[in-house]
Structures are given as C-alpha cells and as structure tokens.
Write a structure and sequence with these properties.
- The chain is of the alpha+beta class.
- About 20% of the residues lie in helices and about 35% in strands.
- It contains nine helices and 19 strands.
- The strands form four sheets. A six-stranded mixed beta sheet has the order 10-11-12-9-3-13.
- Helix 2 crosses helix 8.
Length: about 350
C-alpha cells in the first residue's frame, strides 16, 4: 500500500522539502536550510510544521464527556470547555495504545488527536468520526510564534497555552489550540483543506520558517517529550514514562486502571532516563546503556542536540541513577562515554 500524501504535499515540494515516509505518510523531513537551522529557528524565532498526518477523531453528541472520561486516563474535570488536555489510551493490561491530545471544543464536542498510525485504534475505542482527511494541521512553534502569527490574524496570537477556540478565517471555520510538541510556546491550527494552502503561504510570508519532521523530532527530544513507538508503546506504561500525572486516580475508572493500580502498588522496574554523551556523537535508539559494565537497558530515542552540541538520548532504564552518574552507550560495537542527566535536556526559551 502506498503512503498517503498530505493535502499540502505539492506546496512542500515547491518550498524545497525533502520528502520521506513516516507513519504511513509522505511527509517533509527538512527544507533547503536543513534540520539544524530549522531546529534553531524554533528555539529562537518561530517555525511552522505541517502535522496533518496526526489524526482527528471528532467525538460529538450527548454523553460524550462520560465516554471519554471513562476511557482515557486523564481527568477531564481538571479542565473545561475551551481547553486542551494531554492523556493516554491504555489497553486492558495497562500498556499504552496511544498518547493523545483532547481538544474540548464545545459543550459535547471533542476533537481527539491521536498519533499518525493510531487513528484506527482510537476510533475502535471511542464513538467518533475520523475527519483527518478533511483538514490540515499547521503547528506554529517558537518563542516568537504568537508575535509573528499576529501578522496573519491577531486571533491566532490570542490563543493561550492549552486553550482551544474556533472562528471563521478566509471563509472557513478554523480550530486552534495552544498546544505543540517542541518544548516551546505555540499553537496548532486545524484548517479545512480548501483554505490550508493560503494559510501556509501567509504564515511563511510573515517570516515564519517552514520546518520538517527532522527538527520536530530533535526539538521534542531536547524537551524530553516521549514519542509513541519509542518511549511509549504496547510494551511500556504511563508510569515507566514518568507521566503519572496523566492518570486520573480521582475518577471512578479508565481503561486499564486495574493493571496500572497493580503496577503503582508494586513499583516500576524501569523508568525514563536522560543520557548525555560526552561528545558530539549522536546517540541512537537501540544503543545499549551500561553502568560499571552492567547493562541497564536500551535507548528508546537518540540524536544530536543542536542547542547543547552533544549527543542525547532517552531510555526506559532499570534502577535509579543520580544526575552525573557515569555510563557508556554501545552502538554498532563502539563505546560512547556519557552520563545520566536531569530532564528536560533543554528548557524553552524565555
């Protein structure tokens, strides 16, 4: 089966994008300036990503609050209409099926946003309609994101962190959330396909740098944001990823709760840990981590940090290790000196 092309595929090619397969889609990896330049533009200025490969499952109708509340892990009572919330969908054994952002758009209307390859898993768990192919999602991220997007429409700039709103733009309804996946401030805009190209061109015309999935990955890694398929998967748990705050213990139920309660009571054997190389050598997922010659697990993600100028990695590693503890990472027969570090690797710009 051929990978899907995003609606804005031709526009990305025009902008000079290098296209690669990702999660069943053909997506921009980087543009002419390259991943490092795009990464630094997000840390210091603003960039725009096309993340239309992410799913949108529209859950609309009476009783929808209770359905989501009893299925997903986080407690929707912590927020209200016009807010967004990060949450998990678990299986009955307590393993992570997907991590999700819920946009609470209206009284009984929610946009549930799964990862690229997991939309069918969400539609199987929730009574929603898949509207992924009806819209594009453009993520504007960076310390100057709101200031720069104001040149296109001031209403975009007014959307605060984890707020959700909708309004008419260019003759269509757009839905906007103050969310993102870079560790920086920003917003994500769900725009119907017919207005998406005009909006993307307007954002780039306002001086916002187009960026690809390469920079999105290095940015999320510096921010120590777990990625489904790496830190989160069908063999890992919310607690192992040190994301216990998304578990709504104060509500009656969520899918997989009994298994997670058992895990909470016995304690986790491994947990998300940050590894910082002593050199510029990029770390890679699958690298084995050793302490005093004993293996403590494998890296689940790794890359080069453009901000730190060193290799960085995340792993679900056994034991508790103090920041600064000396480790080594073995990759392809090569031993790379490194140390444990506190997370995130890089904090967002002031």
């Amino acid at each position: 089966m051929n990978d899907r092309r995003p609606f804005l595929y031709d526009t990305h090619v025009e902008f000079g994008a290098k296209i690669v397969p990702f999660g069943g889609w053909e997506m921009p990896l980087q543009y002419a300036t390259g991943t490092v330049a795009e990464h630094l533009a997000c840390r210091h200025d603003a960039v725009v990503f096309d993340v239309s490969h992410l799913g949108t499952v529209r859950c609309d109708g009476p009783g929808m609050f209770d359905v989501l509340q009893n299925t997903l892990t986080n407690d929707l009572r912590k927020i209200s209409t016009g807010r967004a919330q990060y949450t998990h969908l678990l299986n009955a054994d307590g393993f992570v099926v997907d991590d999700i952002i819920v946009w609470w758009v209206g009284d009984d209307e929610f946009d549930v946003m799964p990862n690229a390859s997991n939309t069918s898993g969400v539609t199987g768990a929730l009574p929603g309609v898949d509207v992924t192919f009806e819209r594009c999602i453009l993520a504007v991220q960076g310390p100057r994101a709101r200031a720069m997007v104001a040149a296109v429409d001031q209403r975009f700039a007014a959307v605060e962190r984890f707020r959700v709103t909708r309004f008419d733009f260019a003759g269509v309804e757009v839905r906007v959330a103050g969310t993102g996946y870079t560790g920086e401030e920003g917003l994500e805009i769900a725009v119907p396909n017919e207005a998406a190209e005009g909006l993307l061109r307007a954002l780039v015309g306002a001086g916002i740098t187009p960026a690809g999935l390469g920079a999105r990955d290095t940015l999320r890694l510096e921010a120590a944001l777990p990625l489904y398929g790496h830190e989160l998967n069908s063999n890992s748990t919310t607690l192992e990823a040190r994301l216990g705050w998304v578990l709504g213990w104060n509500k009656e139920t969520f899918r997989g709760r009994a298994a997670v309660e058992r895990e909470r009571d016995r304690g986790i054997a491994r947990g998300l840990t940050g590894i910082l190389a002593d050199s510029r050598q990029p770390l890679r997922d699958g690298g084995e981590v050793f302490v005093n010659g004993d293996s403590i697990g494998m890296l689940t993600s790794g890359n080069f940090s453009p901000v730190l100028g060193r290799g960085i990695g995340l792993g679900l590693l056994t034991g508790e290790h103090a920041s600064g503890a000396v480790v080594s990472v073995e990759m392809r027969g090569r031993e790379i000196p490194a140390s444990v570090t506190t997370l995130p690797f890089v904090r967002k710009a002031k």
